[in-house]
Design goal:
The chain is built from 3 helices and no strands. With 91 residues, it is mainly alpha-helical. Helix 2 runs antiparallel to helix 3.
Amino acid sequence: MEAKPDGRHECSACEVFSKCNEEMLRGLGYLNSVLSVLLLGLVAWPKPDEPRWKLVALIAGMVLSIAGMGLRWLASRKQEHQIETLEMARR
């Protein structure tokens, strides 16, 4: 990492993330979480001889987790819209 004249550094990861806006980073975070849920569900998938309730519980947990992420994303979009509306009203 090389320091800039003002003392800040610029590593390659910083350069990449500085080009991404907050919405894109948030979306990538949610996508990462969804993939994580799917991978963990794949590993935990019950064998055919295991009780049926385990499969039902696993699927329900995966669906609820992904739905929760979707609701948090919608809430953040709504909040961003409200902030933008207030900022426009102040002008």
